[in-house]
Amino acid sequence: METLLSQASPLEAKYLIKIFIGEMRTGFHEGLMEQAVSEAFQISIEAVQKASMVIGDIGEVAATAKAQGGEALLKVGFKIFRPVKLTLAQTAGDVAEALKEHGGETAFEYKLDGARVQIHKSIDVVKIFSRRLTDATASLPEVVGAVRGSLKAEEAVVEGEVIAVDREGHPIPFQHLMRRFRRVHQIADTAQKVPVRLYLFDMLYVDGKNVISTPYSKRRQLLKERAGDIPLTRQLVTSEAGKAESFLREAISLGHEGLMAKKLDGEYVPGIRGKRWLKVKPVLEPLDLVIVAAEYGYGRRHEWLSDYYLAARDTETGEFLKVGKTFKGLTDAEIIEMTRRLKNIIVKVEGRRIVVMPKIVVEVLYNEIQRSPKYRSGMALRFARISRIRDDKPSEEADTIQRVQAIFERQFLKKGRYKP
After folding, report:
1. pTM, to two decimals
2. What contacts 329, CB < 8 A, 6 or more positions away?
3. Catalytic pick from 18, 85, 100, 111?
4. What confidence tens digit (pLDDT) does each residue in 199-208 have?
């Protein structure tokens, strides 16, 4: 860093420091880096992008391009124990939209409330990589054992979902699964308290053959033939919306999130969010919550109050209890106006955070309500985002903590409970 700064102009140094300490969001993304590598080493952008998809690390792509040139990038293939970027899904409003998008017929599968994993196997050595491509092998010894004992391949790269289950085998909320992924010591004790189950859903590579360009229906069949005793995600291939709706209701009744819809002839495209895969999830009941505090953002939002603490009213005490925090949902124009409004109702300033009078009501969407020791309410919204500002509703008419509790409890009509 000292060498870099000594070579920089004052203006360059200013922005380098901002980047180092997280004060600046540059809009610099991997696609731009791929263009930079292409330009720097005079290699086609297509070759760089393809290599980046397979290698999963643009830094390694750049190093290979510099040392060995474009010909080496064209020959890049799968390498066991080097994780590949995951293909990503877009959202469909309902099963009918998914069917239309996929040409009238698609493969619907249970969308499990777990952690997506990419599993690499070479003879008896197994490694498990998380959604972020970090090594999670040590945290999941029973998954390693299942793959080592059941997967019928000398070498393979497969994908699946790991879910946490209760003692009866019912899925339990995602937050308990995360205890397993964070654990690197005393695994046996944690594994007993939070058992997990693996379901497979895709195969990318098997015994020297890269199959990502093979249609999904054939990859699924290949996986079925090789999975052994490891279960696959439950699947329904149909062109009938009615059957798909029934399948969705069945998934929800068993405590799962919804459905995935996968195009039957779709390729696996690493690192790309496309319509080959669509997720269909029923929307949970929105909540009208009150903003009780806010924090200034970072980067270009550093002058705006853009992070909001959300609270529900306790009917017994009249107090507003926090159930979450979000920075998502509002446009820049709405954030600027919200900043102005919040500054007018400040009660207390605590560094970058302000506490405000409970006056402003917002409608909030979320994926789940989970237990939280962080808030006195004991609950927190997962993936909360503001869908609209409810200027038509006074804070006295906001949703109550009792309603939040009722929604939380209803989740366990379908999900299992964690019992330490």
Report:
1. 0.67
2. 365, 385, 386, 387
3. 111
4. 999 999 999 8
